[in-house]
């Protein structure tokens, strides 16, 4: 496969034997390469800084810093690195904590030989990977919230912000957007600043990527 499609992986687990087995699964694939290993969460953070992997695969139960703690730190400091949790725990609480920590997927070690490769590829495509029990947990949680009268989570941005996001992502200048929407340039700039802050993004390029991800524009 072309080198451009190769996924560089950091693997963190406190059991060397587990790391060896997982590495064998991953490196049997031409598009997946383990570039660094770590024996605990703190080592994983250091290795991620040094190697800038595309994907970090983290065990939950590790000394010094758990995989969930490491995931939170990685999501904050290296948002470009995707995160997968690989664990022995078929546990709803850990699953929800993993999603909240910024993980894109949750894979059980008991079926790693079946699921891990696809989970890596799905994560790199920007798709979540959930094992069947996790899907059921999500649905149960969602239905429970509805029964308790909680509303469905609203969109993070307003309709006007969405309009401006789409136009920014399409490459229009602030002046062009102001003319199209019949508002002032100052108002456009304020909306754009609000968008960056709300979505936790840095610049126009990241706004464009977000717009593609949520289907506002085509890639």
From TrEMBL:
Mind listing the UniProt keywords for this protein, alphabetically?
DNA-binding, Phosphoprotein, Transcription, Transcription regulation
Q: Which residues carry this modification: 4-aspartylphosphate?
A: 59
Report the superkingdom from the record: Bacteria
Q: Name one GO biological process term.
A: phosphorelay signal transduction system
- Has the keyword Nucleotide-binding been applied to this entry? no
Named from the GO MF annotations, one term is: DNA binding
Q: Which residues form the Response regulatory domain?
A: 8-124
User: Which PANTHER family does the record cross-reference, listed alphabetically?
Assistant: TRANSCRIPTIONAL REGULATORY PROTEIN NARL-RELATED, TWO-COMPONENT RESPONSE REGULATOR
What is this protein's name? DNA-binding response regulator
Specify the species.
Answer: Streptomyces antioxidans
């Amino acid at each position: 496969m072309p080198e451009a499609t190769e996924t560089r992986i950091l693997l963190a687990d406190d059991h060397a034997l587990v790391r060896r087995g997982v590495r064998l699964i991953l490196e049997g694939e031409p598009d997946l390469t383990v570039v660094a290993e770590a024996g605990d969460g703190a080592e994983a953070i250091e290795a991620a800084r040094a190697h800038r992997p595309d994907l970090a695969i983290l065990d939950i139960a590790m000394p010094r810093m758990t995989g969930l703690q490491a995931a939170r730190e990685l999501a904050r400091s290296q948002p470009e690195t995707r995160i997968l949790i690989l664990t022995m725990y078929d546990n709803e609480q850990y699953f929800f904590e993993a999603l909240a920590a910024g993980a894109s997927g949750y894979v059980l070690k008991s079926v790693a030989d079946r699921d891990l490769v696809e989970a890596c590829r799905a994560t790199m495509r920007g798709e979540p990977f959930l094992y069947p029990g996790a899907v059921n947990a999500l649905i149960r949680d969602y239905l429970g919230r509805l029964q308790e009268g909680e509303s469905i989570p609203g969109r993070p941005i307003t309709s006007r912000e969405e309009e401006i996001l789409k136009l920014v992502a399409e490459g229009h200048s602030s002046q062009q957007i102001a003319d199209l929407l019949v508002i002032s340039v100052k108002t456009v700039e304020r909306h754009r600043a609000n968008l960056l802050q709300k979505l936790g993004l840095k610049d126009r390029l990241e706004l464009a990527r977000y717009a593609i991800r949520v289907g506002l524009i085509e890639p």
